[in-house]
């Protein structure tokens, strides 16, 4: 009898102890070159198969959006035939073009933010980008007259959407769209949704500087994400402490060419058709990758003062600005999650 009681007691202790033991966490990292950048995904799961399958689904979202939005695919290739943006640019000035739900949503959001940012965000900028040679291997400094002529076909008010039929039409001949300022953010958001739907609660998706962190790095501890010094590639000027958030940076150092010592970068002001001035970089922090991608470009074009006015009306969005006169300005609320690095090159200031 005593032996039975002892065995039962041991069983209860063992069972209780076993239940309290944490599940083994499996870490899986994979990297692929998609959307003209390296996409790195790290997930944590309770088993290897779940980690690998969820990562595969996340990458599929990037691949799908790349195919739909690639406007530089070569003719007579499968990529060319599958690109909906190429079809829009070829045919939408003649007749409405039916598109997928993903492309319709991106264009619809772009139109919305074009209005909200007073034209600072603009996907109809493609003809101007082509004049400058961005997206190609041949850069060029256009004449002012050439730029002014192209501005006549820039403006999202000239995009005609039919939500009931999922069609896109363009109001003027020679218009063309470029989704480069929204597609990667949208794809990142879809990939994170794919991870969540697979039961993943902890992950980090790095899409060439568009970084989404899912959950916490460790219980009670956030993920730490560095903000690059726009003039020193290997240096970090601040560290963000994030949980279930995304950070996206737009800067004049990411894609540019130089002529006679002057830098011409790829973030064009749709109102002037020339590279935006005033800032070296803008980092946006929020909970939606599509929104962060759009706003990092928008703020870079708007400049510091107009961006701060926008941020006053949207307290859920945080931003970190590096100006051309070597000032670092951050919006209210960011102070709680940012660690500033000491630097002789910059002065720091919180704006309210």
UniProtKB/TrEMBL annotation:
It comes from the Bacteria. Magnesium. Can also use manganese. It is found in: Cell inner membrane. Its cofactor is Mg(2+); Mn(2+). It is a lipid-anchor. Keywords: Cell inner membrane, Cell membrane, FAD, Flavoprotein, Lipoprotein, Magnesium, Membrane, Metal-binding, Signal, Transferase. It is an enzyme of class 2 (transferase). Residues 1-20 form the signal peptide. Its EC number is 2.7.1.180. InterPro entries: ApbE, ApbE-like_sf. Belongs to the ApbE family. It catalyses: L-threonyl-[protein] + FAD = FMN-L-threonyl-[protein] + AMP + H(+). Mg(2+) binds at residues 181, 293, 297. SUPFAM superfamilies: ApbE-like (SSF143631). This is FAD:protein FMN transferase. It comes from Desulfonispora thiosulfatigenes DSM 11270. GO terms for cellular component: plasma membrane. Gene3D superfamilies: ApbE-like domains. Flavin transferase that catalyzes the transfer of the FMN moiety of FAD and its covalent binding to the hydroxyl group of a threonine residue in a target flavoprotein.
